[in-house]
Amino acid sequence: IFFGADKTINELCFCKLQGKVDDCNCTIDAVDYFNNKKAYPRISSLVLKDYFRFYKVNLKAKCPFWTDDSRCAMRYCNVKPCRQSDLPPVYKGFANGGDVSYTLSKNLASDDCEQDTNAELSFLNTTLSASIMEDFAAWKAYDDAQDYYCQLPDVDDEAEYVDLTLNPERFTGYKGKSAHRIWNSIYMENCFRPKNSYGAYIRSSKLNGMCLEKRVFYRVVSGLHASINLHLCANYLLSERESYGIISDTGRWGKNFKEFERRFSPAMTDGEGPQWLRNLYFVYSLELRALEKAAPYLEQEKYYTGREKEDNETVAAVNDFLRVVKTFPEHFNESAMFQGGDSAKKLKADFKSHFRNISRIMDCVGCDKCKLWGKLQIQGLGTALKILFADHVDFESEAQKGQFSTFRLRRSEIVALFNSIARLSSSIYELDQFGLTMR
Ligand SMILES: Cc1cc2nc3c(=O)[nH]c(=O)nc-3n(C[C@H](O)[C@H](O)[C@H](O)COP(=O)(O)OP(=O)(O)OC[C@H]3O[C@@H](n4cnc5c(N)ncnc54)[C@H](O)[C@@H]3O)c2cc1C
Question: For residue 242, what is the enclosing H or E element?
């Protein structure tokens, strides 16, 4: 319907999505089969459990990189807060943690601003029930007691719990200069660049001239970028219902094939789209391997929420998921990275510091919902890298001793890790749905 009779699916991009996942031993087909039949059904229900559904995050931290805040950088204009009387009903009465003044000044654009985002679509629902608020105190007491081994206590007073199920990752309308500035900065942060490459974006054909570690860095970022953009195509606002002059959240949502074509077909992306999708498979394989490696640690975690029945179910569901993860035949091999003396050590340190900078760039994202999911997925990826490159930890033998003395994951790291693999898993599943529906 959307591509016209003269174009087949193969001409668009799926023909190139076969063979080996770059820099991995596994094939695209093996990942598709494993994910869509085994992993996706499990992880998508697992992340609905209370332990995984509430993510503690600071969305108010100032952007540390550019002097004007993300709001001004985003629209290149001053934002004029609306009057209370201008508010549409949907914004009225969201008590329980919703800070109206913050939402107003941050998200509602005045008419004469360049609209880089849509206020209502990027609106973050911060509603939390009174009973769950009470539970958080018990969670904190429990986590504090566990934090004895923690090297990095969570001292971020501004961090708040957000219910991820109320804020699905989907089309928000965030685009233009602000979004480009973020992606641009992220790719520029990758100082591991091919020789004679000047723009922020690296052409896939140049990657082969780079060493494995640098390629990995690029692929994880590009894979995450592909996943975010795939989700917005899969959960797109198909028909807008106007209310009070802004697009309503209650319109019809679904797959937008044209948008998918624009973002991923070779014709519209100068041949790069399929490579970006391949990088999605790469970052998925990398996070999957992190889960496999950390399984002995994750299997002894209590997944505490204070509700015994729910906690037991969560433990059982995590163990079932990890059991399946271990059956994946050809995991990513991280041991090939950072080999060889002082230069490898320096490369590893650079890798870490560039990645930390990317996580700080997330504070500059000018749309709260995008920031929430961006932060979560970057933290999940960071946790996966922390696991993969924790050379000093023998997960099996520490688990046998019943105590991990040199390694610890905080609750937010575990929540981010599982939710980020759930996002990647969903992207691969959605890709299959796009393919199937288009055939
Ligand atoms: C952290 C973050 C989270 C976001 N979350 C959301 C969201 O939840 N919902 C939403 O609707 N929008 C979200 N966005 C915005 C979205 O990602 C796009 O930036 C926006 O839709 C504009 O798209 P674009 O076509 O201009 O290209 P962009 O996606 O902005 O890409 C800019 C350039 O990067 C290159 N590029 C594109 N994809 C890749 C890739 N996979 N690998 C390598 N290079 C690539 C291309 O040259 C492209 O022109 C988010 C943006 C950021 C930075």
Answer: strand 242-243
**194 contact partners, CB below 8 Å, separation of at least 6:** 202, 206, 207, 209, 210
How far apart CA 357 and CA 303 sit, in angstroms, is 30
Kindly report, residue by residue over 170-193, the tens digit of the pLDDT.
998 898 888 999 998 888 865 556
> Measured in angstroms, how far is the CA atom of residue 229 from the centroid of ligand 1?
6
Question: Residue holding tokens 């998200």?
Answer: 107
Angle at CA 158, nearest 5°, toward 152 and 159? 60
Q: Are 46 and 418 in contact (CB under 8 A)?
A: yes
Candidates 114, 175, 283, 372: which one to mutate for ligand 1, based on the most atoms within 8 Å of Cβ?
175
Report whether 226 contacts 282 (CB < 8 A): no
Q: The pTM is what?
A: 0.83
Closest CA to 291 of 369, 368, 380: 380
Residues in the chain: 439
Of the CA atoms within 13 Å of residue 139, those in its CB half-sphere come to 21
Mean pLDDT of the chain, nearest integer? 79
Q: Which atom of ligand 1 is found nearest the CA of 263?
A: 25
Residue type, 347: L
Q: Kindly list the distances between the CA atom of residue 146 and the CA atoms of 52, 94, 149, 413, in Å, as whole numbers in the listed order.
A: 18, 34, 7, 14
ipTM: 0.99
List all residues 6 or more positions away from 120 whose beta carbon is below 8 Å from its beta carbon: 88, 90, 246, 247, 248, 249
Residue tagged 């499990």 (tokens)? 42
Torsion over CA: 313, 318, 319, 324 (sign)? positive
> In angstroms, rounded to a whole number, what is the distance separating the alpha carbons of residues 21 and 19?
7
Contact 217, 187 (CB under 8 A): no
Residue 179 Cα, ligand 1 centroid: separation in angstroms?
Answer: 7
Q: What is the pLDDT of residues 31-68, one digit of tens each?
A: 999 999 999 999 999 999 999 999 988 888 889 887 64
Q: Are 394 and 403 within 8 A, CB to CB?
A: no
Are the C-beta atoms of residues 160 and 62 closer than 8 Å to each other?
A: no
Helix (H, G, I), strand (E, B) or coil at 1: coil
Give the atom of ligand 1 at the shortest distance from the alpha carbon of 182.
Answer: 53
Q: How far is the CA of 227 from the centre of ligand 1 (A)?
A: 10
Reference 264, options 309, 230, 231; nearest CA is 230
pLDDT tens-digit profile of 321-348? 999 999 998 888 888 888 878 888 888 8
